[in-house]
Fold each of these.
Amino acid sequence: VLQKIASIVPLLSNEVKSRQNLITAGQKIALGNTYLLKGLSDSQANTNLTLTDRLAIILVHLKASLPNYEQALEDFKKVEIDSLPFEYQKDFEDFRTLFTSLVSDFKNLSALGSSLQEIFGGKGTRRYLLVFQNPYEIRPTGGFMGSFAIMDIKDGKILKIDVPPGGSYDLQGQLNEFVEPPSPLLLSNKRWEFQDSNWFPDFPTSADKMLWFYQHARDYTADGVIAINATVLERLLSIIGPIMDTKRGLSLTSENALTTIQQVVEEGPEKKEQKPKQILADLAPQFIEYFQNIQPSAAMPILVSLEEALTQKEIQAYFTDPATEATVQSLGWGGQILPNKEFQDYVLAVNANIQGQKSDAQIKQTIVHQAVVAEDGTITDTVLIRREHTGTAGEKLYGQTNIDFIRLYVPLGSELISAGGFTWPNESSFRAPETYYKKDLTLQQTEKELGFDRESGTRITSEFSKTVFGNWIITEPGETSEVQFTYKLPFKAMVVQNTNPTDGWKNIFITTENKLVRYQLIAQKQSGINSAFESQIVFPNSWEPIWREGENMKTASNGATITDVDLKKDLVWSLIMKSK
C-alpha cells in the first residue's frame, strides 16, 4: 500500500518530504517485520521447546523490532494527507490508525515480557485460584462466586486443574476462622465465608481476601486469582462452536450455555449428592484439551475476544508477585479502583445482590449524573440510579425480588446533601453474628465509618480514597426503582492558579488570567453489569465551552451533555470552559 501511494505522489517541492517519509516508513516497517518474523520462525523451529521458551524467543525479537516500528510512526506523522492523491487519502489514514494501534499492542506485549514468564510458570510451578462469577447475581467484583478451581501451571502447560463439584460451599466446613461479615451480608449469612469474599469493588483487595479464606480453609496458598465472569463462556463458544456434555446428553452453545448449566446446577441429580457443580468439573477437560491443541486460525479470534473481555472486566487478574501485579494494573486488567486527582470528578456505582436469587439477569440499570457549578465555583453533583426489573413475578430464579445494597463512590471529602428513594429489607431478616466471632482486620482498615444520614438511612464511609454512600434498593418484578444522591464536591471550580492552560491536565479546574476552567469526569464500570450512562455538566451562563473530549459528549451553551453511553468500560470526559 505504501509503495503504491509513494509511487504516484507528484515530485513537487511540497510533496517531496511526504514521499520520502512514506518510503522510509515502509523501509522501517519491513526491517521491523524481519526481526519479528525471525522470532516467530525460531520459536517454532524446535518442537521440544516449552511455551515459555517460545515466548522468550518471540519477545527478544519483538523488542528488536519495536524501535523500527516507532520510527515508522514518526515518519507517518510527518506525512501531509493533502499531498496524497485524493483517492488514497482515506486508505492511508486507515493504515496509519491501524498501524498505530498495532504498535501500541506490541509495546504492551513487550512490557508484559518477564511478567508472562512469571504468569505461565516459566520461573517454576505456579498455582492460581480461578473463581467463576455469575453476573445474574451481581456482586462487587462481578457476580456471586458459586464455583472455583485450582490450577497448577508450569512452562505454559497446565499440570492440573481441580474443580470442586460442590462449588464454593465446599470450603465451608474446612474454614478454621470465625469472622463477622460486612453488615449488609448479614442478610444472608452471620459468618463471613469464601463465597462472599468478593465484597470489595477493588479487585486486588477482594482477591487478597479470597486467598485468605482459601488458605484458612485448605491450608494452601496460591500465587494469584483470576476471576472469570460467566459471560466469557458465551464469548468462547461463539468462536469454537458448541461443545457436548455426553454424560447428560447436552449440547452447549453460546446462546444456551448459561441457562442450561444454571438449570443443571439447580435441578440436576448431582445437587442431591451435594455436587451441584459437577457439570463444570466434567466440562473442564474439554476446554483444557482445546487450548492445548489450539489451531493457529482460531488463536487470533480468541486473543481479540480475550483482550476485549479484559478491557470490559469480564476477566480480572491479581498476582502476588509485585512486578507482575503492577504490570497487569498498568494495562487496566487488574480491576482496581481508579485513583482520581484532587480536582477530578469521579463516579462508580457498585451493586451487591443479597438474597435476590438470579434476578439481575432481568435488571436494566441507568446512571444519570449531573454536575452544577455555581457562581462562586461550588460544584454540586446529583446521581440518580434507575433499576428496571423486566422479569415476571413467580418465575424461578429470574423473577424474584431484586434486593440490592448499592454503594456510590465519589471524590474523597464529598458532603452528602440529600438522598432518597431507598427501601430496606425487613430488619428481622438480618442474622446476628455469634459473640465470639472476630472483627475482620481488612474490613476495618478498608471501610472507615464517616457518618450516617438519619433522614435517608444512608451509610457514609471512606474506602479506597473515596467517599462512599451506601443504602438499599429493592425492585419487584415488572417495576422500576430510583434512588438519588445529591452531594457537594470537596473543591471549587474557580480557584485562581498561576498555571498556563496549555501546560496539560495538572488540574481539571483551573482559572487563569485567560479565564479558563477545566472539568474532567471519570466514570468507572462495575464488573458484571453494563449500565446506561448519561450526564449534564452545567456552568453559569457567563461561561461557554471551547473544547471537549469523550464518548458521545456534546457541548451546550453553558456546558455539555453526555448521552447514550453503554458503560462497558471505564470512561473519561474532559471539558474546557472560558468566561464570556
Amino acid sequence: MNRVMKRIYSVIALWIGCCWGGMAQTPVYLDETKPVDERIEDALSRMTLEEKIAMCHAQSKFSTPGCPRLGIPEIWMSDGPHGVRMEHVWDDWVHADWTNDSCTAYPALSCLAATFNPELAYRYGYALGEEARFRKKDIILGPGVNIYRTPLSGRNFEYMGEDPYLSSVMVVPYIRGVQQNGVAACVKHFALNNQEKWRDTIDVVVSERALNEIYLPAFKAAVTEGGVWAVMGSYNKYKGTYCSHNDTLINRILKGEWGFDGVMLTDWGSAHNTDEAARFGLDLEMGTWTNGLTWGLSSAYDQYYLAQPFLRKIRNGELPESLLDDKIRRILRLCYRTNMDRNRPYGRKLAEEHTAVARQVAEEGIVLLKNKNDFFPIRPERYRKIAVIGENAVKRLTQGGGSSELKARNEVSPLQGLIEVYGADRIVYSMGYASGAPDYNRALPSGYDADSLVRCAVAAAKGADAVLFFGGLNKNFRQDCEGDDRGSMELPFGQDDLLDKILKVNKNVGVVIVSGNAVSMPWLDRVNGVMQSWYLGSEAGHATAAVICGEVNPSGKLPFSIPRRLEDNGAHHFGEMSYPGDGTTVVYRDDILVGYRWHDTRKIPALFPFGHGLSYTRFDYGKVCTDKRVYAVSDTVRIRFELANTGAMDGAETVQVYVGQKSPSEERPVKELKAFKKVFLKKGERKNVTLEIPVAAFAFYHDALPGWTVEADKYRIAVASSSRDIRRTTEVEVTK
C-alpha cells in the first residue's frame, strides 16, 4: 500500500472512530438546578485524574485551563490592588500592547488606609471589581494587608499601614466591593511578607503572640468578615517552610481555625516542593520557574510541582488522590462564585463614577503634616508667582513598582492640576532633580544633567513668591518597588541638598512628599508646610491641587509612624538580625511593639505619629461618657462625646479610640487602636459621636495558654486625634 493510500485509510478510520465514540457516549451536562455543593461533587466525579491535575496549575502567565470537556471555563486573573493591570503575552512578562487594556488608576492602598474611611474602601473595591469584571477577570490579585514594619520595605505602598486594626477594618469593605461583581478578591501575601529584601529565602522567626496580635488579624478579618474567595501565599518562610505550602499557616490556621473555603494560590514562583504543596494546603500553583520575573523555562506549566510530578506521585501511591480532590472542590467553588455564576453583573470600564471614586480617595488620603503660619491653603489670589519644583510634579507614577504597574487611560499630574487652578501665567515649573525610567531590577540613569537642573530650580525659586516642592520617592528599583527594599530613609536624587539651596534663596517653601513610605526630613524646621501625598492614580493632579488651594479640606491621617531616625524604628533598633536578617533568617525582636506601639511604650517620640493629620479647621472634643464603669468580658463599651467644628471651614475629623491596660501580667503596649470613626462637620456644626468596643477586643494573645485572654483590670480609654494627640480620657474596669 503506498503512502497516499495509507493516509486516506487512517483519516477514514479516525472519522469512523470519532463518530462511533460520539454515538456511544452520552453528552455530559452539569445539572444547574442542584445546590452548588452537589454540583461540585457531580463535576468532580466526572473528571479524569489528568483533568483534575490540569486545573490546579497555570496554563499561561495569568490563567488556568478549566475543564473544557465538562464546560468548566478557564480562570483568568490580573494584578493588582490599585487597578486592572495591562495585558501580557501568553508565556512572557512582555506587555501585549493591546489598545483596549487601559484602566482607571486608583490611589495606592497606603492612601486608602490614610482616609480612615471604610465606606470609601467599599466604593474603591466595587469600582475596581467593575473594571475587572468588564475585562473578563475572575480573580483580582489584591488587596495587600502585610504590616508596615520598617520604612525601608519596598512594597509598603501596596499595604494598609502599621496597625492591624486599621488594616482589618479597611480591607473587609474593599473585598466585599470587589466580590459584589462576581470577581474574587485575593488577599495577599500570606503571611509575614514585611520586607522585599531576601524575600525568596528569608525564614521569619516571630513569636506566636506577635504573629496573632500584629501580623494575622487583617488576614483573619478578610476571611471571617470579608468572606474573601482567594488567598495568595508569600515568598518567605515561616518555621522553616515556605509560606505558600505551610502546614501551620494554611491547614491549621487559614483553613482550620478560620474556616476558609476558597482557593489558596501561590505568588508567582513561590512553590518549591510537590509533597509540601500537595499536603500543606496549596490549591493553585502559578508562575513556577519564573520567580515572578523574566527568566526560566518557557511553557513549563506541565512541569510545575502540582502538575506532572503530582500526577506521578498519585499514580505511584505516594500521595492520595483525596488531596487533589480537595483542591479541585475549592477551585470549582471559586468557579461557581465567578465565571460559572450566570447572575453576576457585566461590569463597567472607565466610567465617570470610577474617576470620581479615584479622586475622592486621593483627596481624603492626603495628610497635612505641618502648616506653619497657615502656609496652606494657598488661595489663588494669594501669590503672584508660584514656583513648582520637583520631578514628582510631572512624573507618571502609575508606572513601575513591580506587579502593581498600571496603564492608566489618563493620569493628571500635580503640575497640570495646579495650572488648571492658578493659571499658567502664575506657575513656573522647574524639574530640579530627575530619576530614570522605572525598572523592576535596576536603577536607570535619567539622562539629565543634575547640576543644570539644580541651577534652574534655584533660579525659579528665587524669583517666586512661594515655592511648592514636589519630592519623595517613586516606583523605581529600590524605592517603592517590589523585589528589594530601600537602602535608607533619605530622599533620593539629591533632593535634600536641592531643598537646602532653595531655602537659601526663598524661605516661603511648602513640601509635598509623594511616597508610600516614611522619609527623613532634615529640612523640616525650615519649611512652612509639609503634605504627605501618595501614589494617587489617575486623578493625582486634580486631588492635589484641590487640597493645596483649599477647595478640599485635608482629612487624611498617617497610617504609619514617621520616625526621626531609622534606628528609632523598632525593627531597626535591635540591629541587622531584626532587619534585614542575614539572608537566611530574620528575627522579629521588636515582637508586638510595631509602629506607634514601639514609640509609645519605649518612649521614643516619632517625628510624626501614627494617626496624625492636620486640618484647615479646628475640632473640639467634648467630655467622654461611657454607659457604666464596670464591665464583663461579654459586654460592649459604648463611648459617647460631642465633636464640634469650631473653625471657619467644613471638614472631617477621624476620631481614634485607644485602649491601654493598667496592670497587665504580660508586657503590653501603652495603648492600642480599638475604634475609629471619620466624622464630617460643616463649619460651626456639632455632632454627638458614639463608638462601640467589645470588651473581648481588650484581649491579648497569651503564648503560655496559648490563646486570647482578657484580664480583670482597669483599662484607660483615650479619645484622640492621633496616637499622641489625646483629647479626652476615661477609665473602665473589667471583672472576671
Amino acid sequence: MRNTKITETILFSILFLFFLQSLSDFIEAIYAFGLLVTAFTIEVASITLLFTPLLLLALRKAPSRPFLLGLSMIAIAARLVEPMLGPGGKLVACGISVGAFMLLFPLLLHRRANIRGWRATNGLAIALSLSIFLRTANSSLDLSESGIFQVISWLPGIIAGSLLWRMDLSAPNEPSAGRAAAGRRMTGLAIGLASIILMMYFAFASPAVIARWTGSSYPAILVTLVAVLVVFGILLNSERFSAWLTQRVVLGWNILFIALLVLTILPHQIAFPSSQDAYPLDAPGASPLAGIFLFLMLVSSPILFVNFILFIREISLERPSQPQIGGSFAVAALFFLIMVFFHVFTTIYDYVPVIGPFFRDRFWFVYLLTGLGMALPLLLLRKGSFSLKRPEVASPFLPLALGSLALLSIAALYLAAARPVTPHGAAPLKIMTYNIQQGVDVEGNKSLETLLAVIRAVNPDILGLQESDTARVANGNVDAVRYFADKLDMYSYYGPTTTTGTFGIALLSKYPIRNPATFFMYSTGEQTATIHAEISRDGETYQVFVTHLGNGGPMFQVEDVLPRMEGLENVITMGDFNFRPTTDQYALMTRTLADAWLLKWPGGKEAPEFSSDKRIDYIFVSPGLTVLESEYKVHPASDHPYAYIVVEP
C-alpha cells in the first residue's frame, strides 16, 4: 500500500510539473507569435486546445486503458520535444501537450478520486517545489529547458510513462442519478481547481515574479516559500492539524490569503495621474508594512493545497457523469484563458481596444479575481467535506521530498547568484544599450541565451536594457535581468516594478550602482519610465540614465527627461527613444547632450546592414566626454540593433 501511495505521488508530481512547464511555454509561444504579428490563425487554433475536455461530452463510455495510456504518452512526449523545436513547432507541441493534459487530468480525477486526492495534492506540492528548484538553478530560466540540461526532463518522463503503465486505471464509479444540480456544482469545483493552478502559474512556480512585483529580496522570498512548503508538508501528516481545519478555519484562511495577496501588490501599484503637469513622477517608496504583507502572504500560501484536496474529494463525492466532468472542465478552461488574457492586458492595455484600458494600473485586480475563483467554490462544499481526515496512513515521504528540494533550491540560489568583482585600473569605459524585445528573437524563439552571448562578446562595463520586463506570464515568468546579472556577475537595478505596466528598463554594471531611482514620464499609451543612477570609477562619477520612450518618441516625454539632467556632469543617457535623427525630439535632445555616434563619426558611417538615419536607439553623452569608439550592430537575437561606445576614463 505504501509503495503504491509513493509511486502515485511521484507520478502526479511529474505530470503536474510537466503541465506547468508546457502551459508556461504555450502561453509564451502564443505571445511571441503575436509580438511578431505573424500566423494569427495558428494562434487562434492553438488556443482551442485548452478546451479538449469538451471531447468528454461525446464519449458516452469510459475511455479504455489503451486510450488513457496513449493520451498520457502524447502529453509527456510533446512536453519533452517542444524545447528542441522552432517557434511554430514549439507552439504546436506545447498546445498538444497542454490539450492532452487538460483531457487527462479530469479522467484521472474521475477514478478513485477520494484516495488519489491526497496523492495528487502531494504531487502538486512536489511539482511546485521542483519548478522552484529548476528555475532557481538557472536564475529563473527553467534549467530543464536550457541546452544540454534538457536531458533532465527525459528521466522523469520515462519514469512517468513506466508508472502509468503499471497504474490501476479501472473504470470510475457509476455516476449518481437524479441530480440536476450536479453539473453546476461540478463547474464551480472545476473553476476552483483551475484557479489554484493559475495562482501557481502566475507567481509561485517562479518566485522571481513575486520579487519583481515588490522589489523585495529574491533570496528572502525564495527561502521563505520553500520553508513554508516544508512546514506544510509536515503539518499535512498530522491528525491534529487535519482536525483543526474546520469549515470556518478554511474559509477564514482563504479570505486572509486573498487580502494579503492584494495588499502585497497594492503598495507597489501606482495610480498614475492624468494631468501632464504631475510629471516627471518619482516612483514612491513602499512602507515597511508592505514587506509584512508579503511575508504573511507567503506563509499563508499553503491554502492552495488545502483547497485543492477539498475540491478533488468533493468531485469524488459528487460522482459526476463523464459529460458533466467534461463540460465543467471546459468552462474552467474558459475561465483560465480569460484570466491569462486579463493578466497580459495589464501590460499591453494600449494595444487592446475597448477592454484593454480598463486594466491599466489594475494589476492587483487579476489576482483578486483569481483568488475569488479559488475561494468561492468552497461555498459549494458540504459542511462535512471540510474534514481532511486521511483515507490512508500518513507517510513521511512528502516532508522528506519537500525538505530535500528546499535544500537543493537554497544551494542553487547560492551557486547561481552574481558575484561582481569591481575592475581596477584606468582602462576606457565601455557602455552598451540593448532593446532585447522581451527576450524573443526575430523568428519568435526565446533568445535569452543568445542575447547573453551577444552581451558577453561586447563585454560592457555598463549595460542599459529596454523591454526587459520578462518576469510575467507572456514571457514564461523568466526574469531576464536576474538571468543576465547572475551569468555576467554584474550589479543590477531593475527599474520600475512589474506592477506598473511598463515594458521594463534595467541597468547592469561591473561597478556598484549608487542611488538608483526610477521616475515616470507622462504617457498617453504604454507607460514609460527612466532610471537615474550614479556609477563611480577611480574618483570619477557618471550620471547614468536608461529610458524607453513610447511609440513615436513623444516630445512631452523628452521634456520630462531632460530637466533631470540639468546641471549634471558626465551624463550618459541611453535607450530606445523611438525617434529618428531628423525629428524635433532629436534636435531638442542634442541641444543638451551630444550624440555619441556623431562624436566618433562626425562625417557619418554606414554599414551594409545598418542605416544611421533610421536609428531610434541612442547613447547621448555630455559634450565634454571623449568617445573613442562607437558602434551599432545588428543581430537576430532581437529586432533592435545594439549600440556601444567607449569613453575616456
Amino acid sequence: MRNAFVNKLDFLASPVAKMGCDWEKVKAVLDLQLTLDARRKSTASKKKGKREHGIFQMMALMYGISGVFTALIVSSIPDSYVRVSLGFFFIFLMAALIMITDYSAIILDKQGQFILQTKPIDQKSLHLAKLLHISVYMGFMTLVLGLPLLLLEGYYDGWQGVLICLLAYLGMDLITVVFTAFLYAGLLRLFSGEKLLDMIQYLQVGVTIIMMLSYQVFNQGIELKGASAHLSPAWWHLLLPSQWYASWMTTENGALPIFLKSAGFILPIGMILLYMKILAPRFDSMLSRLDENKEKIDSKKLDRSMNRQRLVAKLFTRNSEESAGFIMGSQLLKRERKIQLIVIPQLALGIIFPLLIILPTLMRGTSLSELRELPLYYALYMTGFMISPLGIYGMKSEYFQAAWIFNALPIQSPNQIKRGLMKSFFVRYQLPVFIIPTLIFLGLYGLSALDDIVSIFFLLCFFVRLNHRSFGEAFPFSEDIAAIQDNKNKLLRMIFLNMAAIIAIGLLHAAVNFLLHASWVFLLFSMVLAIYAWETDRFLKKIQRES
C-alpha cells in the first residue's frame, strides 16, 4: 500500500532530476520514512492492547470541523475574491500553526540523518525526501481543513474554483514548509546548544502570536456594507501568500494584481530551488550546532537556581515527599526539549485566544468604558479547554528509560511524589498561561469583575487536576514521548471533553450571575473546589489512589 502511494509520485521524476537529485533514491527514502511512521504507530497501539486507529484520525476530525466553520463564515459573502481571501487566509494561518507545532521536530531531526548519511545518497536527495515527507502530511491536513471551502467554491465558481483551491493549498503548504526551514536555518547560524533550543521556542511563540493577530487585522480590512463586502488588492497583500492565490479570483487589472497572480506560481518554485541549492547541502552541518554547549556550568548560578526551586516548592507543596517530587520535576522539565517544542506553541494559543475577543472590539472603535459593560472576560474559559489537557505531556519523557528509579527509591507515599511531579508541570507551563490573561482582564475590568475573573481562574485550575484522572497509574515522566500519535489522539479527545465540560460550567456561571447576582458564591465554590482537588487525591480514580 505504501509503495503504491509513493509510486504515484513518479510524475515528479523529471523536475527532481532537473534539481540534480536521484528520484529513485528520493523515493526509496520517502518510502522508508512513511513505512517507519506507520510501524511506530502500530507498535504503540499494540502495546496498549488497542485496535489500530487511522493515522491522524482525531486531528483530521478537529481540522475538518474548523474547516466547516470557516466555510460557514464566508458562505454568505457573494464576492468570490473576498470569500476566498478570508478562507485562504484562515487556512494559511492554520497550516503555519500545524507546521510549527507538529512538524518542527522532523525538520530538526538528526538521528535519521546520521543513519542515512552512511548510505550512497547525496545531501540534496536526502533533504528533498524530508521535504516531501513533511509535505505529504501537511497536504493531507490542509486538504481536510480546506475541503469545505473547496466544495463551496465548486458550488459558486465551478471547476475553476476547485482548481484554484487545490493549487492554493499546494502552494501555501510548500511556502510554509520551506519558509520554516529557512527560519530555523537562520537561528542555527546565529546560536548553538541550549541557547539555540531556547530561541527556537521563542520563534514558535512569536510566529504563533503574529499569525493570530495578523488574521484579526486582515479581517478588519474588509469593508462590510450590508450583505455585501469589498476588498481591494493592496501593497501589504504581497506579504500574505494567501492573497497571491486569492488574487486569481479577481478581475481587476493593473501592476499589483498581475504581480500577485504571478507570485503564486513563481515564488513557491523559487523558494524550493533556493532550498535545494543553498540550504540542503549545508543543513546537516548546521544541525550539529544543536549539540554544542559553549556555556560553562556556573556553580553559583546553579545554587541560586536550586534555592529558587526550593522556595517555589515550599509555596506549592505541603510535605517533604511532595516537595522532592516538585523539585525533581522542575529539573527534568528543563531537559525535555521535545515536550517544549510541542507544548509551548499551544500555550501561546491559550494566551492569545481570549485576547482575540478584545482586539476586534477595540478596532471597531469601542471605548474602554463601553468595553467594560460587556462581559468579555468569559473568554477566559477558552484558555481552559486549550491548556487543561496539556498536562498529559507531563507523563511523557525523552528519558523514560530512567523511570525505574521510582521503583528503586524508598518512597512511602507514591501519590505524594506524583502530585509533586504534576504540580511542577502545572507551575512551569499551565499556571503562567492562566495568570497572564487573568491579569489583563483584571486590568481592564477592575474590581467590578474581580469575583467572576478569579472564579474562572480557580475553575481552570480545577480542570487541570481533573484531567489527571485519564493519565493512568504510572509515574509522570515514565512514558515514551516518541509515541506521539497516540498522545495526539488522547489529547484531542481530552480537548473535546474539556470543551463540553467548560462550556457547561461557563453557562452555569453566567446563569448564576444573571439570576442570583451572587458572584461571590461562585467564587467561594470554585476556590474550595480547586484547593480540595489539588490537595487531595479524591478526584483520581480508585486504582490511581491505591497504586
